[in-house]
Write a structure and sequence with these properties.
Layout: E1 4-7, H1 11-21, E2 26-29, E3 45-46, H2 50-55, E4 59-62, H3 67-74, H4 79-83, E5 87-90, H5 96-105, E6 110-116, E7 129-134, H6 136-149, E8 152-155, H7 162-190, H8 195-204, H9 206-222, H10 232-249, H11 254-268, H12 279-283
Parallel strand pairs: 1-2, 1-4, 2-3, 4-5, 5-6, 7-8
Antiparallel strand pairs: 6-7
Helix pairs in contact: 10-11
The structure holds NADP nicotinamide-adenine-dinucleotide phosphate.
Length: 287
């Protein structure tokens, strides 16, 4: 028997294995067994099947490409029975509905749904965030092992879909910012400015940007869209400058066009003198 079993050895699984190895005994399984070779030291055991891996430890982590891949493993003969009395932590990325479906298919298993907000290189740090939802008692029993992979455990409550919802909402924020960042890179390039200095500066001022996002979130929560410090019309003006600059510098205008499309809808709906948070009223309109 080992402390933890880990199913899935893609780039993320390998990082999880390395973080776990230093503090726990570990059994691993991967569809392609050769991928385990770099981590088969420090006593780590390679199981011959997913079932054997699950039987080997009281705590089972699964981190494969998606829930469909996970389901194909967890639906194998004997697996559901082998999981009874153990804690299963699902670390594959999915939607809240994926988590609910998985949980329903494994009734009787102590199931936690987790979402790592990190790249493989960020695994094992005290500040690495891990969203977790499900039974709090199950979390308490495996907290030390989870802290070995991600020190910042963000427990999001019992509803099993919560971790996936927080994860997707946060990824939406991140990829939205990334899309804007890439267009910002094109602006820098068009003016001969150094991209690495731009990205470094964004990192340095990120608390100020975070404060701006939070202010809009608080306004949405309170349903208060009036008395803007920066009105929708003012913000839309910046959007139009992106379009103008892209035309002047002959840049791809996908991002400016997307942004001005949203601003045009907000202005058309009569929100010119409201704060930026009023954009949510546009997005709440039926598609
Ligand atoms: N990489 C990241 O930055 C990151 C960050 C946060 C979350 N995640 C999440 O972590 C999960 C794993 O990601 P990853 O980066 O390790 O790489 P990945 O390419 O998403 O997943 C690779 C793993 O999935 C397995 N797999 C795929 N299809 C399978 C199937 N039908 N049956 C059994 N196993 C199957 C692969 O096995 P084989 O080796 O046999 O192909 C391998 O173990 C994903 O859900 C991803 O979204 C990744």
């Amino acid at each position: 028997m080992t402390d933890v079993s880990l199913i899935g050895l893609g780039p993320m699984g390998i990082a999880l294995a390395r973080a776990l190895q230093s503090r726990h005994t570990l059994t691993v399984w991967n569809r392609t067994a050769e991928r385990a070779t770099p981590i088969l030291d420090q006593g780590t055991v390679l199981a011959p099947s997913a079932l054997a891996a699950i039987q080997a430890s009281p705590l089972v982590l699964i981190c494969v490409a998606d829930y469909a891949a996970s389901r194909s493993i967890l639906a194998s003969p004997g697996v559901a029975d082998a999981l009874r009395g153990k804690v299963l932590v699902q670390l594959s990325t999915g939607t809240p509905q994926d988590a609910r479906d998985d949980w329903a298919a494994l009734s009787g298993v102590a199931y936690l749904d987790g979402a790592l907000l990190a790249t493989p290189g960020q695994i094992g740090r005290p500040d690495t965030p891990l969203f977790i939802s499900g039974e709090e008692r199950a979390l308490a029993s495996c907290r030390p092992a989870l802290e070995a992979i991600a020190g910042n455990i963000l427990y999001m409550g019992e509803p099993i879909g919560n971790a996936a919802a927080w994860d997707l909402a946060t990824l939406s924020c991140m990829f939205g910012a990334m899309s804007g960042f890439f267009h910002g890179v094109r602006i820098c390039e068009s003016e001969g400015l150094k991209v690495n200095e731009f990205s470094q500066m964004i990192g340095a001022i990120s608390p100020v940007l975070g404060e701006m996002i939070d202010a809009e979130g608080q306004a949405i929560h309170a349903g208060r869209y009036g008395e803007p410090e920066s009105s929708m019309a003012t913000c839309a003006g910046s959007g139009r400058l992106f379009v103008k600059q892209a035309r002047e510098a002959k840049l791809d205008a996908s991002f400016p066009d997307f942004l001005t499309g949203l601003f045009d809808r907000a202005l058309g709906a009569g929100f010119a003198n409201e704060r930026l948070a009023a954009m949510i009223k546009v997005l709440r309109q039926p598609a």
